Amino acid sequence: MHVNSSDREIARSKASMTCTVLVVDDDPACRDEYCDALENLGYTAKSAASAPDALQQIVESPDIGIVITDLEMPTMDGMSLLSEISQRFSPNRPIVTLVLTGHSSLQVATKAMQAQASDLLSKPVSAEQLADALRRASAHYFATAYRFQITTLTTRIDPPASRDRASNQGSRPTEEDLQAFTSMLLKFQHNKYKFFDPAVLMGPSWEILLDITDATLRGEAVPASSASASTHVPLSTALRHINNLVEAGLVRRWTDPNDKRRKLLKLEPHTAIAMQRYLETAWKLQPQIG
Hints:
The protein is an alpha/beta fold.
């Protein structure tokens, strides 16, 4: 697997915002090949020779955020590993799984998706395919990590005990609670302007961009009508803001090949990277609050 110079350039720009990637395969040659490719792309890589070894490493290494696993392994196969990760780890920490298989089929893909795998790659995997899959996985990881962080912060500001007291006694948040929450909102608001031009993100443009980001993280395009509906403004106003995002080079728009009446939207690659950086920085803001 050869990694070209453009992939390395992208990797250098992403190196500071990637989590550790764990490669799980019982074939040592495959493990070495993929670990080398990951490191050439700027990712920190670890490897495991079996599913039990992988589970142990995930327990011991909270920095592992992406797992790439083969399906055909002795003792415990890749599907079982996916199920274990989904049930044991995903509810409590951000972790994204990808599947490598030499026998891709609709049945395999369906089982992998049911086990919450975010991507399925058919062997042999090219450097370009691996790089694209990891970009999507990284974006998904940081978006998930961001949601975990927000949940943690919300719990800290308004812990369950306080919520119970509030429901039982009719109490309201204290001034300190509201000040901390306001500080959090302001920090998130100011943070986005480090990565995007404020003039472009006026009005509902930010809501539209977040909606397209959500779809992009799932590896999907979003219809322009759906992105417009994510706002609370007239359709004509929302479409005007979509035009602004397209003209600013943040969003790609094209005609749905299956329905010529419909326009599809997706983040441009550099926008996806900027959103990853925004999400990571926003995630790191939490310890500074309150």
